[in-house]
Specification:
356 residues; 48% helix; hydrolase activity; Metal_Hydrolase; single chain; alpha/beta; TIM Barrel; hydrolase
Amino acid sequence: MSSTRIEADILRRLPKAVLHDHLDGGLRPATVVELAETVGHTLPTTDPDELAAWYFDAANSGDLVRYIATFEHTLAVLQNREGLLRVAEEYVLDLAADGVVYGEVRYAPELNTNGGLTLGEVVETVQEGLAAGMAKAAAAGTPVQVRTLLCGMRMFDRVGEAADLAVAFRDAGVVGFDIAGAEDGFPPADHLAAFEHLRRESVPFTIHAGEAHGLPSIHQALQVCGAQRIGHGVRITEDVVDGKLGRLAGWVRDRRIALEMCPTSNLQTGAATSIAEHPITALKDLGFRVTLNTDNRLVSGTTMTREMSLLVEEAGWTVEDLRTVTVNALKSAFIPYEERKALIEDVVLPGYASAL
């Protein structure tokens, strides 16, 4: 496919929405270095640029389990109130600088309790940091709304506790739930009780599926557990042959189930082979509700602007395509309809009109 060109400054200024981004995968390298020194944690290097390169190189293994292992060092600096507050605030400011107007950040509170914080204190602290970041971004003229998804780690036994937290904090900035961690060997249905609880309490949830495992994972996430969105979902293409959709792919497309796709991350974990051939383009063209996401900005060395740039340059995407995935994300965000509608009509569409 021939490459196209959109000026870098235009791409950066385009309004963006990100639904799939992990807090503990998006720290600033310099912040990791500074926080590691305060808690006495040894890093592979204390040079921020070298550390950023180390993360990117370590994650390029083509294996999801090894990709996840890189989080040892980011989690080490997120075990106390000071670290969580700083990282949450910086997270918001980094989104705002990237042109993001709406974001959903996800993390697993159970991974942040080694320093003595309770699960509830972890959530309260992160929400405080996010609020501080949103206030600073608004004051700087780059407002961004950031909401939270709480995760349970699918290979451990605290998913039910994380679901309870999502219910408890749903009026305090938490808008949904997810399960994260190694997908293969840990099917979504293992945690069916947690998902049934969330449905009874009217808390929406997404599920990582179709990344390291195929169609059975996606089927379980949707038809057994009742997910409203799918994290990644790249392997739904296994149910598409010569443009003809199988029953599961048809269900996903026809019911407008959002696919939270993360091109660079998918290359790193081996779920895709190239940006040019990433399933996001074919699925977009087939009418699926695909969304564009970063997954882990530090680990993948990326931003929303970079993800957009790669698709423009290597897959021939246009400004109209970028607008489509941005609107798709807001249509499927876990916030009330009137808030989604206002963001689309008052922020996103005018922002893209100026670039067309």
